[in-house]
Predict the structure.
Amino acid sequence: MSSQLAERIGTAKAEGRAALIAYVPVGYPDVEGSIAAMVAAVEAGADVVEVGVPYSDPGMDGPVIQQAVDVAVRAGVGMTDVLRAVEAVAAAGAVPVVMSYWNPIERYGVPRFATDLAAAGGAGAITPDLIPDEAAAWLGAAEGADLDRVFLVAPSSTEARLRSTTAACRGFVYAASTMGVTGTRATVGDAAEKLVARTREARPDLAVCVGLGVSNGHQAAEVAAFADGVIVGSAYVRELLEGRGTDGVRRLTEDLARGVKGHNGHLGRSEGKA
């Protein structure tokens, strides 16, 4: 059994850096445009792409991502489009992992989703609103298809919850280091570093990747100093919402890629997208 995510994050670590993980929802500005953005991110240095599944009630996402996802939902973007994006990311040379609320996966059919995702070259799935206690169907299907499964931990997670969540993960564990919805932040606080340390104590052999609203190379460098991977979502979506398209995605990725190597890039805090 091999984990695409663990292998790619391990490669980055061997190179003395954190992995760069980019989130882009499928279907904004349209399916082809979103796939082009994902490929641009890969070509500019992203190691992993979180392929976002549009959902009508993205309760854990902030206004930037909600705005883009709403367009995709209204356009009828579905799992078939998501799987096509997965194939494109894999062909471009990065590791694709689907990011989805549980309802779309359940509606598609859990065994079918696992089989089709594996066939498309996907590494696995991140399921932000699914806890391991209620994930028996997904864990079984993922195991059968040799897929990674990524669950979330937060600053509010108890030690027991950290242990049970990390025990169910394969690939990495997603440390959502700010309470509330997603979105870019102006500064990086110390809650993320504390959460990573606690999570590593719970399971030392598992990579810990952090999502907290990183929007530029300086912030990526700060997070890369203590995390195995830096997850960026809202900043990518903003490039698309504001019409900068693949060029904007490329520039952002290049800056972030410098950051995860420990270099701060060219954007100062005042220039970052808060």
In short: Confidence is low (pLDDT under 50) at residues 179-183, 264-274.
